């Protein structure tokens, strides 16, 4: 039952993650095109924060997301659990 529950929630998480990636890409272009003056003024503050989020949290999430989604029956249970924890850590970093 626990594996079925995990598979159910991991599908929902994968869809939400994909939607977040797409909306994040659009948001970065939107900041530059629709709010160019705002981006010019606050760019030195927001730019490094967005770069930090992409370089740490997003790459951590994306790197281990493949193991979490596709490796449930292909890797050891401890490695799969570690990958799931790494994705959760990336999400926590992204949120803050």
Describe this protein's structure.
Helix content is 90%, strand content 0%. The protein has 96 residues and is an all-alpha fold. It has one domain. α1 (2-33) packs antiparallel against α2 (36-70). The longest helix has 35 residues, at 36-70. It is elongated and about 50 Å long. It starts with a helix and ends with a helix.
Topology:
Layout: H1 2-33, H2 36-70, H3 77-95
Helix pairs in contact: 1-2, 2-3
Distance between the termini: 33 Å
SS-derived structural category? mainly alpha
Order of helices and strands: HHH
What is the domain tally? 1
Q: Tell me the number of strands.
A: 0
Q: Can you give the mean pLDDT?
A: 84
Shape, please? elongated
Q: Which consecutive residue ranges, at least 5 long each, have pLDDT under 50?
A: none
As an assembly, this protein is single chain
| Count of DSSP H/I helices | 3
Radius of gyration of CA atoms, rounded to a whole number: 16 Å
Helical coverage, percent range: over 70%
Largest beta sheet, briefly? none
Strand content: under 5%
Sum this structure up briefly:
The radius of gyration is 16 Å and the shape is elongated.
Give short descriptive properties of this protein.
mainly alpha, 96 residues
């Amino acid at each position: 039952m626990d594996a079925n529950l995990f598979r159910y929630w991991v599908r929902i998480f994968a869809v939400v993650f994909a939607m977040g990636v797409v909306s994040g890409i659009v948001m970065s272009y939107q900041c530059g095109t629709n709010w160019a003056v705002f981006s010019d003024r606050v760019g030195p503050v927001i730019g490094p924060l967005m770069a930090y989020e992409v370089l740490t949290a997003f790459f951590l999430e994306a790197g281990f997301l493949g193991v979490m989604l596709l490796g449930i029956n292909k890797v050891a249970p401890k490695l799969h659990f570690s990958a799931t924890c790494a994705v959760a850590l990336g999400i926590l970093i992204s949120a803050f």
